[in-house]
From TrEMBL:
SUPFAM superfamilies: Class II aaRS and biotin synthetases, tRNA-binding arm. It comes from the Bacteria. This is Phenylalanine--tRNA ligase alpha subunit. It catalyses: tRNA(Phe) + L-phenylalanine + ATP = L-phenylalanyl-tRNA(Phe) + AMP + diphosphate + H(+). The keyword Cytoplasm applies. It is found in: Cytoplasm. One of its GO terms (biological process) is phenylalanyl-tRNA aminoacylation. The lineage of its organism: Bacteria, Candidatus Harrisoniibacteriota.
Length: 354
């Protein structure tokens, strides 16, 4: 019988949910009319022999129950001290929600990592740019029709930003002449970097760019690019082909077929566009590649001599390749995202998928 009481008492005390429940159990077992007290009191009616066997067992049980009640009370009073009344701290904890990295952050990190492993340095430049760096120095003079390729956000009062003309040397003045703007591409950083560095070097330039355009599934007024530039005495398009092939191989973790198509950008000659075999259909033709089997992924070419001249290099001394790719486009291909506007929607259901 003592065994039964013991089992029941220990079980009930262990599963008590708050200090009131513990107190009720204390009274039930150890109170004046409690079950254990009754047994102890009834010892006197037993024979000496019986008393010798039952006595110590009942005493031990009393001690066990007292200890357990004490422990349980301590648990509850601790949680009360911490301002958590009645909370059983032995319960499993609640999962803490941690944030997610935006898919653009993820892909930029990955691309940085790939180029760093190929010995490229990561360089950044300003988002508010001068007309000189964004256009003129890149062989896009004011009345050149190529300026139509970049719909620009021009900044008002830009002359004030670049006043204090007296303090500028002639050379500096020409760079701030003209209006300020939000850069339409990351290419101006090519000039900024070359002005202060000597070849050989290889860099990538991740950054935010802006276009004054209507938005749709593949256009945003604000997006991200990664520019690449490698210059040396003997850098060729063959080097570019290897670097870019390796880049896609690592980004998509498989051998991706690429092709070059002739194209035009004022700051390269020859200029080209790089396509990759459609990731989705493998080239058979599908909605993603508009049945062409290829996906356009970047512009590139050999740096134009005028660009080297703008950076005060002698074009006879150096040559190199440049490229520019859209980060959203890469992420859309890699993660199968159908609409560029999703990146900027702020919808957590979108972000939580990555
Ligand atoms: N800046 C170009 C754009 O935004 C992309 C580009 C094309 C960059 C060719 C380059 C290049 O460096 O060589 O459309």
């Amino acid at each position: 019988m003592i065994e039964d009481i013991k089992k029941e008492a220990l079980e009930l005390i262990r599963s008590a949910k708050d200090s009131a429940a513990v107190e009720r159990l204390r009274i039930r077992f150890l109170g004046r009319k409690g079950e254990i007290s009754k047994i102890l009191r009834s010892l006197k009616d037993l024979s000496v022999k019986e008393r010798q066997t039952v006595g110590p067992v009942a005493q031990q049980l009393k001690k066990d129950i007292e200890r357990l009640i004490q422990e349980k009370t301590a648990v509850f009073s601790k949680s009360i001290q911490q301002g958590l009344p009645g909370i059983d701290i032995t319960m499993p904890g609640k999962k803490i929600k941690i944030g997610y990295l935006h898919p653009l952050t993820l892909i930029e990190k990955e691309i940085r990592g790939i180029f760093k492993a190929m010995n490229f340095s990561v360089v950044e430049g300003p988002e508010v740019e001068t007309e000189y760096y964004n256009f003129d120095a890149l062989n896009i003079p004011k009345n050149h029709p190529a300026r139509d390729m970049w719909d620009t956000f021009w900044l008002q009062n830009s002359q004030q930003l670049t006043s204090d003309k007296e303090q500028l040397t002639k050379g500096q003045e020409s760079k701030v002449k003209g209006q300020m703007l939000l850069r339409t591409h990351t290419s101006p950083v090519q000039i900024r970097y070359m002005e202060t560095h000597k070849p050989p070097f290889q860099i990538i330039v991740p950054g935010r760019v802006f276009r004054y355009e209507a938005t749709d599934a593949s256009h945003e007024i604000n997006f991200y690019q990664i520019e690449g530039l490698m210059v040396g005495k003997t850098v060729t398009l063959a080097n570019f082909k290897f670097v870019i092939q390796e880049f896609f191989k690592r980004l998509f973790r498989s051998d991706i077929e690429i092709r070059f198509r002739p194209s035009y950008f004022p700051f390269v000659e020859p200029g080209l566009e790089v396509d990759i075999r459609c990731i989705k259909c493998g080239g058979r033709g599908c909605g993603i590649c508009k049945d062409s089997g290829w996906l356009e992924v970047m512009g590139a070419g050999m740096v134009h001599p005028r660009v080297f001249e703008a950076a005060h290099y002698n074009p006879r001394d150096f040559q190199g390749f440049a490229f520019g790719l859209g980060l959203e486009r890469m992420a859309m291909i890699k993660y199968n995202i159908p609409d560029i506007r999703l990146f900027y929607s702020g919808d957590l259901r979108f972000i939580q998928q990555f």
